[in-house]
Design brief:
The complex is a heterodimer of chains A (about 170) and B (about 250). By secondary structure, chain A is mainly alpha-helical. Chain A contains seven helices and no strands. The mean pLDDT of chain A is about 80. In chain B, helix 1 (about 5-25) packs parallel to helix 7 (about 195-220), helix 3 packs parallel to helix 5 (about 130-160) and helix 6 (about 165-190) runs antiparallel to helix 7. The chains are: A mainly alpha (about 170), B mainly alpha (about 250).
Chain lengths: ~170, ~250
């Protein structure tokens, strides 16, 4: 009986997943690239600031504030992840360009965007842990420098394709 | 209308849909890009036609063997299709492919272990060929459904873009294998009394998948949408909210 229930649960999870995939695919077509203010993000991630708060504030207040901070950071990380996904999507067309320079730049951009997606996943996991245990400090430190490099590469790719009307480079 | 005649009617519909889908596959020369899926569809169509001919002219035992041989080949081809989808999905993303391949392999090991556990747990009930075959099929379907789930989960986690036809193939296969798995579990638990409902649900699920495949193969690929630049006011508003929070 237990096995039957487990097997049916697995199959039903798959059905729910398929339904979610169809729904998110519809939403994806209306996906927007949103700018990320990296200075604000950096400030939010500043661990010295956090240490200062930890020292000065009562424990309950610190926990409350840290969780609030994490919620905002998560929104930033999600935005970075969504932008990286948009870059992956748009890089696909450029990757098969007949101009080797464009194809090479696109491949680089896609590689970076892929790495950022993985880092965003890790960052979200770390942030979830920190949310549960606010005293933890698991900084997703590599995200900002990587994202800056991605920005530069997307700009370079856009400059190689002046005819493309995609304002991605200025948007991310 | 009895359940047998409904099943019989749906069988004709299935063959018709399979012939249409095979024509689409041949007409679009889909084997160049999707050899695994093309083989799966062309085999399934030939198998359906062959089984129909056998059911008309041969004994039940011949049909039994034909059914299970075709089922075994279809399951193997189904797994080939899953691999093909994986390769297509991750082909442009070298960095992600390494990580995804590693997770995929771990996923296969976990699913095979789960499938073996299911077989082991149900082994004492396996009296007769029929039940043994159903248990083995259930275990292989667990692996198939799990791998399809992995494809959707990983594409969501890595933010990958599905091409129209690849998404349709994965969706169709997912619908059919999920329903098949539920029905196999129910059939094994309740016994042959639900055989009619099992066949009906299986046929309906497969027909839904066939329609999804036809639809997605015929639908034109969506053009890459250009990105929208966010409005400056929006960005300022967002930054102000963050600054307020920081200065709290």
């Amino acid at each position: 009986m237990t096995i039957t229930v487990l097997v049916i649960a697995l199959a039903l999870c798959a059905v729910v997943l398929l339904y979610t995939a169809v729904r998110s695919r519809r939403k994806q077509s209306a996906q927007h690239v949103r700018a990320v203010d990296l200075n604000a993000f950096r400030t939010l991630m500043d661990r010295d600031d956090e240490l200062f708060m930890k020292e000065k504030l009562p424990r309950s207040k610190f926990r409350h504030l840290k969780r609030q901070r994490i919620r905002v950071i998560v929104r930033y990380v999600r935005r970075i992840a969504a932008n990286a996904s948009a870059v992956l999507h748009m890089g696909e067309a450029a990757r098969v360009s007949s101009t080797s320079e464009v194809a090479e730049a696109a491949a680089q951009v896609m590689e970076l965007a892929g790495q950022i997606r993985v880092q965003c996943l890790l960052a979200l996991m770390k942030l979830s842990l920190e949310y549960v245990m606010p005293s933890l400090q698991l900084t997703p430190a590599m995200l900002v420098p990587k994202y800056l490099i991605l920005r530069e590469n997307v700009k370079r790719l856009s400059s190689l394709q002046p005819q493309t009307p995609v304002p991605l480079a200025t948007a991310i | 209308m009895s359940i047998e005649s409904t099943i019989h009617g749906l069988w004709y519909v299935q063959i018709a849909l399979q012939v249409i889908l095979s024509s689409v596959v041949i007409g679009r020369k889909a084997w160049r890009e999707l050899p695994g899926f093309s083989a799966y569809i062309l085999f399934a169509t030939s198998a359906s036609l062959g089984k129909y001919a056998i059911s008309r002219s041969h004994s039940g035992i011949t049909y039994f063997y034909a059914y299970w041989i075709c089922e075994a080949i279809a399951i193997v081809l189904g797994l080939v299709v899953v691999r093909e989808i994986f390769m297509k999905l991750f082909a442009p993303h070298l960095a992600l492919r390494k990580l995804a391949t590693m997770i995929f392999r771990v996923g296969i090991i976990v699913l095979v272990a789960f499938g073996c556990a299911v077989m082991y747990a149900q082994a004492p009930d396996a009296q007769g060929w029929m039940k043994t075959l159903l248990i083995v099929e259930e275990a292989t379907r667990i692996v198939e459904v799990g791998l399809i789930m992995f494809l959707f989960l990983s594409s969501g986690a890595f933010g990958l873009h599905w091409r129209q036809n690849i998404f349709g193939i994965a969706l169709g296969l997912g619908i059919f294998t999920s329903v098949e798995l539920v029905m196999l579990a129910v059939r094994l638990h309740l016994g042959p009394s639900v055989m009619g409902a099992f066949s009906l649900a299986r046929l309906l699920a497969f027909e839904l998948s066939l329609m999804a495949w036809i639809g997605y193969l015929l639908a034109p690929e969506r053009a890459t949408s250009s990105a929208d630049v966010p409005k400056r006011a929006q960005l300022e508003q967002w930054n102000q909210a963050v600054m307020e929070l920081i200065s709290k």
